[in-house]
Task: structure prediction
Amino acid sequence: MDAAQPYLQALRDLFRQHPFLTYPYASVRVVTSEPNYTWVPEVIYEDEAKERLYRFSFAGAVEEVLTQPLETMESVLLFGLRHDLHEFVLQTIHNARWEHGLASLLQRWHGHSLRALHAEVYAIVHDRTMDVACFDRGALRFLNRFEVETDDDIMYYLLYAWKQLSLDQRSDALTLSAVASTAFDLKEKLQTYLRNIRVEAIETLYRTDDREATLGNQAEANAVNA
Result:
């Protein structure tokens, strides 16, 4: 896609150039990493509270609020999409199923934390943002996205969260995901303050889900074409 083009126009061009994207598959997963998301426990996600939650979390009039259940965590992930983007995908891709890129990771981390003896913090560093989640024996204690530009920004937010959550600098764990050069530089700097740091290559985060999706889509396409 041409980065100089408006996003929606670039997406339209992409679909024109690759007609297979509009083939009538039985189901299509559309994964987004939109920055606006909110985690809500099922116990408070009730009909009378939904509109209030939407207005509070997604004030922009251009946003379409979507929901994704997190069954293993008994909660829901809300995320916002631009109306024009949402409408374009609905009109172009039949049976599109929207998912947020964090949803599968949150459930995976939740499963790990149920078996862990200490709190675990997960940080995913992108170009200009960082997602941070903290689990402690299955409980989600913290989830937020920060805007970051430098290593100092990343370290500040991580250490601030560590302090606010009263985490142990020696026993509680940090799993850091970023491009390799950034991840290992950050690990070296953070080791001054935190002992238990693990680096997970950002390229591997979605590997299992992507492989399953690819195989699933191939099977669906074969079934449609049979």
In short: The beta strands are 28-32, 37-41, 63-70, 75-82, 96-100, 120-125, 129-136, 139-147, 173-177, 196-199. DSSP finds seven helices and ten strands in the chain. The two ends are 32 Å apart (CA to CA). Helices lie at 7-17, 47-57, 83-92, 101-115, 151-164, 180-190, 207-225.
